[in-house]
Design goal:
The chain has 8 helices and 4 strands, in the order ααβαααβαβαβα. By secondary structure, it is an alpha+beta fold. A 4-stranded antiparallel β-sheet has the order 1-2-4-3, with helices on both faces.
Protein backbone atom coordinates (compact mmCIF):
# COMPACT_ATOMS: atom_id res chain seq x y z
CA UNK A 1 0.00 0.00 0.00
CA UNK A 2 1.34 3.40 -0.97
CA UNK A 3 0.50 6.69 0.70
CA UNK A 4 0.95 10.06 -0.94
CA UNK A 5 3.18 12.51 0.94
CA UNK A 6 0.21 14.59 2.09
CA UNK A 7 -1.51 11.44 3.39
CA UNK A 8 1.58 10.47 5.35
CA UNK A 9 1.79 13.97 6.79
CA UNK A 10 -1.84 13.81 7.92
CA UNK A 11 -1.27 10.55 9.79
CA UNK A 12 1.81 11.88 11.59
CA UNK A 13 0.06 15.17 12.33
CA UNK A 14 -2.72 13.29 14.16
CA UNK A 15 -0.16 11.23 16.11
CA UNK A 16 1.92 14.23 17.19
CA UNK A 17 -0.93 16.66 17.96
CA UNK A 18 -3.30 14.30 19.80
CA UNK A 19 -3.72 15.38 23.43
CA UNK A 20 -5.46 14.23 26.59
CA UNK A 21 -8.04 16.99 27.16
CA UNK A 22 -9.83 17.97 30.37
CA UNK A 23 -12.11 20.90 29.43
CA UNK A 24 -14.97 20.78 26.94
CA UNK A 25 -17.76 22.83 25.41
CA UNK A 26 -21.30 21.40 25.70
CA UNK A 27 -21.90 21.45 21.91
CA UNK A 28 -23.43 18.15 20.77
CA UNK A 29 -21.48 15.80 18.52
CA UNK A 30 -23.27 14.70 15.31
CA UNK A 31 -24.36 11.07 15.44
CA UNK A 32 -22.56 10.20 12.22
CA UNK A 33 -19.31 11.55 13.70
CA UNK A 34 -19.77 9.43 16.82
CA UNK A 35 -20.21 6.38 14.61
CA UNK A 36 -17.03 7.26 12.69
CA UNK A 37 -15.07 7.24 15.96
CA UNK A 38 -16.55 3.92 17.04
CA UNK A 39 -15.94 2.38 13.62
CA UNK A 40 -12.31 3.52 13.75
CA UNK A 41 -11.99 1.87 17.16
CA UNK A 42 -13.65 -1.29 15.88
CA UNK A 43 -11.00 -1.54 13.17
CA UNK A 44 -8.19 -1.73 15.69
CA UNK A 45 -6.00 -4.85 15.72
CA UNK A 46 -6.92 -7.57 18.22
CA UNK A 47 -5.34 -10.78 19.43
CA UNK A 48 -6.69 -13.74 17.47
CA UNK A 49 -9.12 -11.27 15.83
CA UNK A 50 -11.15 -11.62 19.02
CA UNK A 51 -12.37 -7.97 19.03
CA UNK A 52 -12.90 -8.05 22.81
CA UNK A 53 -14.32 -4.54 23.12
CA UNK A 54 -17.74 -3.06 23.75
CA UNK A 55 -18.66 0.63 23.80
CA UNK A 56 -21.17 2.08 26.27
CA UNK A 57 -22.38 5.47 25.01
CA UNK A 58 -23.23 7.85 27.86
CA UNK A 59 -24.97 11.18 27.20
CA UNK A 60 -27.23 11.39 30.26
CA UNK A 61 -26.23 14.12 32.71
CA UNK A 62 -27.31 11.92 35.60
CA UNK A 63 -25.06 9.01 34.61
CA UNK A 64 -22.12 11.30 33.81
CA UNK A 65 -22.52 12.88 37.25
CA UNK A 66 -22.34 9.48 38.93
CA UNK A 67 -19.21 8.58 36.97
CA UNK A 68 -17.64 11.91 37.93
CA UNK A 69 -18.38 11.11 41.57
CA UNK A 70 -16.58 7.75 41.23
CA UNK A 71 -13.58 9.43 39.59
CA UNK A 72 -13.35 12.21 42.17
CA UNK A 73 -13.61 9.73 45.03
CA UNK A 74 -10.66 7.77 43.66
CA UNK A 75 -8.64 10.91 42.90
CA UNK A 76 -8.95 12.01 46.53
CA UNK A 77 -7.96 8.53 47.72
CA UNK A 78 -4.87 8.52 45.49
CA UNK A 79 -3.71 11.91 46.77
CA UNK A 80 -2.22 10.26 49.87
CA UNK A 81 0.57 8.86 47.68
CA UNK A 82 1.94 12.35 46.98
CA UNK A 83 3.38 15.08 49.15
CA UNK A 84 4.16 18.76 48.80
CA UNK A 85 4.24 20.13 45.27
CA UNK A 86 3.38 16.75 43.72
CA UNK A 87 0.21 16.55 45.84
CA UNK A 88 -0.80 20.08 44.82
CA UNK A 89 -0.27 19.30 41.14
CA UNK A 90 -2.10 15.98 41.44
CA UNK A 91 -5.14 17.55 43.09
CA UNK A 92 -5.20 20.23 40.39
CA UNK A 93 -5.76 17.60 37.70
CA UNK A 94 -9.25 18.18 36.42
CA UNK A 95 -11.89 15.48 36.02
CA UNK A 96 -14.80 17.87 35.42
CA UNK A 97 -14.61 16.86 31.78
CA UNK A 98 -16.70 13.82 32.62
CA UNK A 99 -19.63 16.15 33.29
CA UNK A 100 -18.73 18.90 30.79
CA UNK A 101 -18.27 16.75 27.69
CA UNK A 102 -21.43 15.96 25.73
CA UNK A 103 -20.32 12.36 25.32
CA UNK A 104 -18.62 9.79 27.51
CA UNK A 105 -17.72 6.37 26.17
CA UNK A 106 -16.91 3.49 28.49
CA UNK A 107 -14.75 1.02 26.59
CA UNK A 108 -14.83 -2.47 28.04
CA UNK A 109 -12.92 -5.69 27.47
CA UNK A 110 -14.46 -9.16 27.48
CA UNK A 111 -11.72 -11.68 28.36
CA UNK A 112 -14.03 -14.57 27.43
CA UNK A 113 -14.80 -13.45 23.89
CA UNK A 114 -13.73 -16.06 21.39
CA UNK A 115 -13.93 -18.88 23.92
CA UNK A 116 -11.17 -20.54 25.92
CA UNK A 117 -8.73 -20.85 23.01
CA UNK A 118 -7.90 -17.58 21.29
CA UNK A 119 -4.80 -17.48 19.11
CA UNK A 120 -2.15 -15.52 21.02
CA UNK A 121 -4.18 -15.00 24.19
CA UNK A 122 -3.42 -18.51 25.42
CA UNK A 123 0.23 -17.54 25.78
CA UNK A 124 -0.20 -13.95 26.98
CA UNK A 125 -3.61 -13.38 28.62
CA UNK A 126 -3.09 -9.60 28.80
CA UNK A 127 -3.26 -9.32 25.02
CA UNK A 128 -7.04 -8.80 25.15
CA UNK A 129 -6.47 -5.62 27.20
CA UNK A 130 -3.68 -4.60 24.82
CA UNK A 131 -6.11 -5.08 21.93
CA UNK A 132 -8.69 -2.85 23.62
CA UNK A 133 -6.01 -0.18 24.10
CA UNK A 134 -5.33 -0.31 20.35
CA UNK A 135 -9.03 0.33 19.71
CA UNK A 136 -8.92 3.31 22.07
CA UNK A 137 -5.89 4.76 20.29
CA UNK A 138 -7.70 4.45 16.96
CA UNK A 139 -10.66 6.32 18.43
CA UNK A 140 -8.36 9.01 19.83
CA UNK A 141 -6.65 9.63 16.50
CA UNK A 142 -10.01 9.68 14.71
CA UNK A 143 -11.34 12.21 17.24
CA UNK A 144 -8.29 14.41 16.63
CA UNK A 145 -8.85 14.39 12.86
CA UNK A 146 -12.54 15.27 13.37
CA UNK A 147 -11.62 18.35 15.39
CA UNK A 148 -12.73 16.73 18.63
CA UNK A 149 -10.98 16.53 21.97
CA UNK A 150 -10.78 13.39 24.07
CA UNK A 151 -9.77 12.76 27.66
CA UNK A 152 -9.00 9.36 29.18
CA UNK A 153 -10.15 9.28 32.81
CA UNK A 154 -8.14 6.68 34.69
CA UNK A 155 -9.16 7.41 38.28
CA UNK A 156 -11.93 5.04 39.37
CA UNK A 157 -12.59 1.76 41.05
CA UNK A 158 -13.74 -0.73 38.43
CA UNK A 159 -16.55 -2.03 40.61
CA UNK A 160 -17.95 1.50 41.00
CA UNK A 161 -18.15 1.79 37.22
CA UNK A 162 -19.60 -1.71 36.95
CA UNK A 163 -22.33 -0.79 39.43
CA UNK A 164 -23.15 2.53 37.75
CA UNK A 165 -23.30 1.07 34.22
CA UNK A 166 -24.64 -2.42 35.07
CA UNK A 167 -21.54 -4.08 33.65
CA UNK A 168 -21.28 -7.85 34.32
CA UNK A 169 -18.58 -8.83 36.83
CA UNK A 170 -16.39 -10.64 34.27
CA UNK A 171 -16.27 -7.61 31.94
CA UNK A 172 -13.37 -5.20 32.46
CA UNK A 173 -14.14 -1.45 32.19
CA UNK A 174 -10.87 -0.34 30.61
CA UNK A 175 -11.49 3.36 30.03
CA UNK A 176 -13.87 6.25 30.52
CA UNK A 177 -13.39 8.59 27.56
CA UNK A 178 -14.74 12.15 27.61
CA UNK A 179 -15.29 13.42 24.06
CA UNK A 180 -16.34 16.85 22.83
CA UNK A 181 -15.21 20.14 21.37
CA UNK A 182 -12.80 22.34 23.31
CA UNK A 183 -11.50 25.90 23.30
CA UNK A 184 -8.28 24.80 24.99
CA UNK A 185 -6.31 22.39 22.81
CA UNK A 186 -2.75 22.51 24.20
CA UNK A 187 0.41 22.41 22.12
CA UNK A 188 1.99 19.91 24.54
CA UNK A 189 0.68 17.26 26.96
CA UNK A 190 -0.93 18.78 30.05
CA UNK A 191 1.33 16.85 32.44
CA UNK A 192 4.36 18.16 30.56
CA UNK A 193 3.18 21.77 30.61
CA UNK A 194 2.57 21.55 34.38
CA UNK A 195 6.07 20.08 34.93
CA UNK A 196 4.71 16.79 36.23
CA UNK A 197 6.95 14.94 33.79
CA UNK A 198 8.89 15.62 30.59
CA UNK A 199 8.94 13.56 27.42
CA UNK A 200 11.96 11.30 27.58
CA UNK A 201 14.58 11.36 24.85
CA UNK A 202 14.06 8.51 22.42
CA UNK A 203 17.67 7.47 21.91
CA UNK A 204 18.34 6.07 25.44
CA UNK A 205 15.21 3.90 25.10
CA UNK A 206 16.53 2.05 22.06
CA UNK A 207 18.65 -1.09 22.48
CA UNK A 208 20.22 -3.34 19.84
CA UNK A 209 20.04 -7.14 19.92
CA UNK A 210 19.74 -7.34 23.73
CA UNK A 211 18.68 -5.25 26.73
CA UNK A 212 21.02 -2.39 27.54
CA UNK A 213 23.13 -2.63 24.38
CA UNK A 214 23.23 0.70 22.59
CA UNK A 215 22.79 0.64 18.81
CA UNK A 216 25.88 1.23 16.71
CA UNK A 217 25.98 4.82 15.56
CA UNK A 218 26.99 5.16 11.94
Amino acid sequence: MNFREEEKAAVYKAIYTRRDIRTFRPDPIPQDTIMKLLDAAHHGPSVGFSQPWNFIIIQSDEVKKRLAWAADKERRALAIHYEGEKETKFMSLKIEGLEQAPLTVCVTCDPTRGGSHVLGRNSIPETDIMSTACAIQNMWLAACTEGLAMGWVSFYKKNDVRDILDIPPHIDPIALLSIGYTDNYPSMPILESTNWEKRRSLEPLIFAEKWGAAPNQQ
